[in-house]
Amino acid sequence: MRVALLPALGLIVSLLALPIPAAAAARSVTVDGPWVAVHLLHYESDADLADLEAQLPALAALGVNVLVLEVDYAFEFRSHPELRLSPKPITPAGARRLVRACRAHGISVVPEFQSLGHQSWAKDTWPLLTKYPELDLTPGAFPGNEGLYCREWDPTNPRVYQIVFALIDEIIDAFEADAVHVGMDEVFLIDNAAAPATKALDPAEVYAKAVNDMYGHVVKQRGRTMLMWGDRLIDAARYGYGAWDASKNSTWPAVYMIPKDIVICDWHYEPRESYPSVRMFLEKGFRVLPTSYKDVEASKALVEQSLALKNPRMLGHVFSSWSKQAKEAEWPPLAANARLLRKAPSVGR
After folding, report:
1. Fewer Cβ atoms within 10 Å of its own Cβ: the N or the C terminal residue of the chain?
2. Quick check: helix, strand or coil at residue 317?
């Protein structure tokens, strides 16, 4: 049995889930037609961004009009210099140069800061929990990161947000961003026995609070559109997905507790006869960006089935390689399937 997070939390998340008034609407990413987006990882310095700039003509020729650039801690933070990932991270000047080059090619940049989960990879723990181990959701557990997928920060600790919001603000300003992707995928530790702050709480309420806290800053305070991964919001049992691209750990009821103007990046990597979560998110009022990986046929199926829904809130598609490519435009699913989106009528903005 789960214990309610706070007596008033149900009311709070319900209020936050209401549509925001039109006057408070966040800035929107402007694209010509459906989003043909590429998710980019491991661009961690100005030199990396210069390499990416050289690839913009080839990407634009394919119809790419959005880059989702995962920045995370690879930035020259001024508010918290101790959280820089390396001695030569992305600088504000480097970010602005890339943004101007992208605009010249009709491409918008959406920076990503991976939130809540993915605070480590293999034996490496990212700077927030290295410098501030007291903010770890499972403090002192899993030495050497053995026995867990990725570390997570404690979403009930207000100190997390005092730090993280300052980092996100710097990234927003440097990239002159109209939208921010906040990650939030593959969260597995909320009810773990080693998580003293949340192990007895309702995972859906904890997860919804984490989403709503990010929304409160990105959308309500900064007036930007918020994107996030959708896996923790999908009932795996009902929709027939696995434990990775959907939730088997009781977070999925959070889908009823968060604002509907969040853009959901609904990722699925395997070929399937259908992808019912895309329709589910649309019917609940969200804008949706289905996201594919390396399987060309699975990518094609996801693009075609999403476009067939003919829903104006189905924005387009995100192609992700989860690695840095020498020639991003030659990533096989993108090269093969971007044309499907270019031929489609405009399905959303």
Report:
1. N
2. strand
